[in-house]
């Protein structure tokens, strides 16, 4: 199945933002190990510096380093040519660019036309938009290079086709979210159908702060059929040849797909920031259990420390469930009681408390005592504390500042509670690491006798549906009520969401997996007088 007479390598790599020398060193390794018959190697969007570089781009010294490393790389190229994406300066303007490099020099340069400025993207802050690009002549072909967002609009592909392009090449740094794989395929098939040209879609992989890039690069033939599909959540260097036979690697769906994103996001955050491992508080509940499983799958059991911090309200079931989970994961569980610290805090503060002091005050002393201990252990060992709150809790403020919200990262930050259960059930199909009782018992913070989450929150299936309507879909109370929820319940959840904004501003970063995560994508004022009736 030939779509071109060229031998093209798709280098789906995991760059480190800001590590220009390291990224270009890896590019050189790919170049030097390429078979002699290789015509072209394609790298992901802004590969030289990693994506997104954010305001690093605005530092002149950063751009100086980019230019120096690009020219040094160009000098070693010979017969095999490279499409190398990087930021580029022209007359004091900054562009999102791609160079065709070969024969020891930069041969052609093309700039991005459509700059995304929504969701997690703010490229218009730093880059200038270029006119519609022209094809790049290369070995009897005309390469139609469209940088990421340029593929989402028909005008760029149409112009390239009109000017003689015979293949479309799309270098990307496209962040993951559930449903994004299908969106990319739909968009790219639309460009193929409009132009009748085959298309190469090359994506970055790896975690960068709250973003995960899932890879999953692919090649579409002239009829929109898969010719090649690379691995997801992993580096993959694949070759498209004139005699290409279909090579379609497995891609996950549902809870397996979400779980893979969380594993990669946590792994890269820990490794790229050079933490020796992670530390998390085990409660015997579902959130800490699935967080521990993600951590072990990301880093290995030797890099994960679990600590049980029981209070006077911690049940024997919770102690047993936490121990059983850690045994199944191969992780040592340490136990540090918070009874004495909580008692001492209560004694110290007793002159300032009365019979009317809200009960939440006493509950939060327990949670914050745990936070102090975990952060002290982190300071002592260098291990990063992993926060374990899910999106349902983060949304409604059902979490304690400086208590269970302590941590450097949170794998579950963008995962609703119902999705936590779905992932746990899927993970147990590989090998049973989460005890059945954790999956079936009523969720509880165990901060007072007989407490369960539903004392303060509606059932999670209803809560999560309401929250998706408010957050991802931006629906008003009336529209969500029409989905079958009581108006007073929707209004209460909406208010909880609004008044918890100050907590979310202080929350740990976490992996984005939905279409609208807290932080970069959903930015509401903390001081906010607007309330829906």
Can you tell me about this structure?
This protein is α/β, with parallel strands linked by helices and 533 residues long. It folds into two domains: 8-251, Carbon-nitrogen hydrolase (Nitrilase/N-carbamoyl-D-aminoacid amidohydrolase); 257-505, HUPs (Rossmann fold). 37% of the residues lie in helices and 18% in strands. It is built from 16 helices and 20 strands. The strands form four sheets. The protein has a seven-stranded mixed sheet, covered by helices on one side. Strands 5-4-3-2-1-14 form a six-stranded mixed sheet. A five-stranded parallel sheet has the order 18-17-16-19-20, with helices on both faces. Strand 16, helix 6 and strand 17 form a beta-alpha-beta unit. The longest helix has 23 residues, at 359-381.
| Count of individual beta strands | 20
Helix proportion range: 25-40%
Low-confidence segments: none
Radius of gyration: 26 Å
CATH class term of the largest domain: Alpha Beta
Q: What is the distance, rounded to the nearest whole angstrom, between the alpha carbons of the first and last residues?
A: 60 Å
Major sheet, described briefly?
7 strands, mixed
Quickly give the CATH architecture of the largest domain. 3-Layer(aba) Sandwich
Shape: elongated
Q: From the structure provided, what is the oligomeric state, counting identical versus distinct chains? A: single chain
Determine the mean pLDDT.
Answer: 93
Enter the CATH topology name of the largest domain: Rossmann fold
**Strand portion, in percent?**
15-25%
Tally of individual helices: 16
Based on helices, strands and strand pairing, what is the structural class?
Answer: alpha/beta
Please, what is the CATH homologous superfamily of the largest domain? HUPs
Q: Count the domains.
A: 2
* Strand order in the sheet with the most strands: 6-7-8-9-12-13-15
């Amino acid at each position: 199945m030939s779509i071109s007479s060229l031998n093209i390598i798709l280098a789906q790599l995991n760059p480190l933002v800001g590590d220009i020398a390291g990224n270009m060193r890896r590019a050189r390794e790919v170049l030097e190990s390429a078979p002699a018959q290789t015509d072209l190697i394609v790298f992901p969007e802004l590969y030289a510096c990693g994506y997104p570089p954010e305001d690093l781009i605005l530092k002149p010294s950063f751009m100086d380093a980019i230019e120096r490393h690009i020219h040094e790389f160009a000098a070693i190229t010979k017969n095999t040519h490279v499409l190398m994406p990087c930021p580029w300066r022209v007359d004091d303007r900054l562009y999102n660019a791609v160079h065709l490099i070969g024969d020891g020099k930069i041969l052609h340069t093309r700039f991005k036309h459509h700059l995304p400025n929504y969701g997690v993207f703010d490229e218009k802050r730093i880059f200038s938009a270029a006119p519609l690009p022209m094809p790049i002549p290369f070995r009897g072909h005309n390469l139609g290079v469209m940088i990421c967002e340029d593929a989402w609009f028909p005008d760029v592909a149409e112009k390239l086709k009109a000017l003689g392009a015979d293949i479309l090449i799309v270098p990307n740094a496209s962040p993951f979210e559930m449903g994004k794989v299908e969106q990319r395929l739909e968009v790219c098939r639309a460009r193929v159908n409009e132009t009748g040209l085959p298309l190469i879609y090359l994506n970055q992989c790896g975690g960068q702060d709250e973003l995960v890039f899932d890879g999953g690069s692919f090649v579409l033939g002239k009829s929109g059929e898969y010719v090649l599909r690379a691995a997801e959540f992993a580096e993959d260097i694949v070759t498209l040849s004139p005699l290409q036979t279909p090579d379609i690697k497995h891609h996950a769906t549902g809870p397996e797909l979400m779980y893979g994103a969380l594993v990669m996001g946590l792994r890269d955050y820990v490794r790229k920031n050079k933490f020796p491992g992670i530390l998390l508080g085990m409660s015997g509940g579902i959130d800490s259990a699935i967080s521990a499983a993600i951590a072990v799958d990301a880093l290995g059991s030797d890099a994960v420390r679990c600590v049980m911090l029981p209070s006077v309200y911690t049940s024997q079931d919770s102690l047993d469930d936490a121990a059983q989970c850690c045994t199944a994961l191969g992780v040592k569980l340490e136990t540090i009681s918070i009874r004495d610290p909580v008692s001492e805090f209560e004694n110290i503060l007793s002159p300032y408390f009365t019979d009317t002091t809200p009960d939440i005050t006493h509950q939060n002393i327990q949670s914050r005592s745990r936070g102090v201990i975990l952060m002290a252990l982190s300071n002592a060992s260098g291990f990063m504390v992993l926060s374990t709150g899910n999106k349902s809790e983060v949304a409604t403020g059902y979490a304690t500042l400086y208590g269970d919200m302590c941590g450097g990262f949170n794998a579950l930050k963008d995962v609703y509670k119902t999705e936590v259960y779905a992932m746990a059930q899927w993970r147990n199909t590989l090998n049973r690491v989460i005890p059945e009782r954790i999956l079936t018992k009523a969720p509880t913070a165990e901060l007072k006798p007989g407490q369960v989450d539903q004392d303060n929150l509606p059932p999670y299936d209803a809560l999560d549906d309401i929250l998706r309507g408010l957050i991802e879909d931006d629906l008003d109370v009336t529209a969500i009520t029409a989905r079958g929820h009581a108006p007073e319940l929707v209004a209460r959840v909406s208010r909880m969401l609004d008044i918890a904004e100050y907590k979310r501003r202080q929350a740990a970063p976490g992996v984005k997996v939905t279409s609208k995560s807290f932080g970069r994508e959903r930015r509401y004022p903390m001081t906010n007088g607007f309330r829906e009736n």
